[in-house]
Each structure stands twice: as structure tokens, then as C-alpha cells.
Amino acid sequence: MLDRAWRLGAALLLAALASGCANLEAVRDFGKRSAQLAGYTEVTERYLGGPERLQGQVPAGPEFERDRQWLASQAQAVQAEKDSLLKLHGVVSGYMAALAQLAGEHGFEIAPQFDKVTGALAEAPHLGLERRHVQAFGTIASKVGSWLLAARQARDVKAMVQEHGEAMDTLLEAMAIATAGMCSELDNERGRMASWHDVQRVAFLRPVALERPGSAISPEDRQTLLNRNAALLAWGERAYAPVRAEQDKAVASAQAALRGVQAVRRGHDELRREVDHLGSAELAARLKALTADLDAVRGKLKDL
Fold this sequence. Notes:
Shape: elongated
């Protein structure tokens, strides 16, 4: 009788353990997708190169000297932000990858930035990174190296979320704010380039020789000048078309990355609120929907 009861209890225990692992599949998949963060680093690199790209497109003329000076100072400012932006990505992606491992994805490779996060995060008012974001980074970055050492049992997911969840929410907020700021800056870059192109376009459309008072010009020469300007305008449009397409792609990529970061924020918020019910079907359904959103964002980025 006791032997039979023992076998029944063991079977129930194994079933419960198997069920627990299966129930954490949604947590694992969400952590794995979130660790990739849907193109954040590519958008960051694009944003950082903005001032340099614009410097090469400023129209000639003294009226644009202020633009050139502003871009020179902006180039220095964004490079100073680079370290903090990539550190932010490194800690967030490492945390999410560790969650995936704790939930059973032991074969998932941690993001390469994971073991390079050293030093402090710097404030970046231009992108909305405030002191509270810096403080949250300080409370969590020192723990990065120990996360993988704790990847043994599924119950550690709860412990990790309870210990670091609040600080991670603040860092995810910082990442969302920074990504939204990069979206705005890339859109502003597109607008500046378009306005400079319009300046050049108007210049092509205005034949100076035809506007001089009292100038005598034959119909043939007049037509020659008009043809020349039309050719210059067509050339300018052809030259600008790939630039415009590239900038449209950059803005679309940044917007997709922002949607990805927002999905990660929502999912992590779900994990914190349901930390005592990580295996629930309701949480699994919500995490699976957000994981699908992240997959859609990644697909969108690949198509751009």
C-alpha cells in the first residue's frame, strides 16, 4: 500500500514539475525575444551618425553657417550619449536573456553586450535620460554577472523579478524614452534634409540670367537655359531619391524598434504583477501575444 502510494505521489510530482516547465514556456519565449530588443542597437547607431550625415548635406552659402556650427556641436553631444545608450541595451537584454534561461531556455546565448556592461550610466537630458534612470541602472548593473549563475530552477524567475523588477521597469522606461527621442531626431533629420533639398530645387528653377533687368536674350538662348535648369532639377531629384528612401527607412525602423521596446515594457509589467502566478494560462496568453508582437516587429525590421 505504501509502495503504491509512493509511486502515485512520485508520478504526481513529476507531472507537476513537467507542467511547471511547460507553463513557463511563455515566459521563456518572451524573455528570449525581448533580449533581442527588435533593432534597438541599429537605430542607436543610425541616430548617432545623424549629425555627420547632415554635415555633408548642408547647402553652400553663409546663410547656412549657423546650421553647420550647430551640427558640429551636435556631433559631439550624441557621441557622448553613445556609451550610455549601449550600456542601457546591454543590461536590459542581459536581464531578459537571463529570464529566458531561468525559465528553461538554457541553450540561449546571452547578448554579446551582456558581459561588457561596466561603469556608470550618464544622464542624457537631450534624450530624456534622468537621474532616476541612472540610479536604477546603478542598482541593477552590478548584479549582471550573477544572473547566469542563478539559472538553475524555474522558481528563480520569481526571485529575480521580485529583486530586480522595479529597477528594470525604470530602465525599460528609460529605453522607451530614449528610443522615442531617437525617432524624433531621425524624423527631424529627414525634415532638415528635405528643406535643404527644396532650397536647391528652387535655385534650379530660377534661371538667374532671365531675371536681370534689361537683359537681352534670344528665344533660343532662353530655351537653352530653361532646358539646362530642367536637366539640373531632374538630376537633383534622382540624386535625392535614394537619400529620401534611406531616411524613410531609418524613421520606420526607429518606430518599429520603439514598438518593440513598448511591448517588452508591457510584458515585464505583466510579469511583475503576476509574479505569484507565473504559470497561469492568462499570463501565458498575454505573454504569447506580446511575443507575437515582437516577432512582427523583427519581421518588419527585416523588410525595411
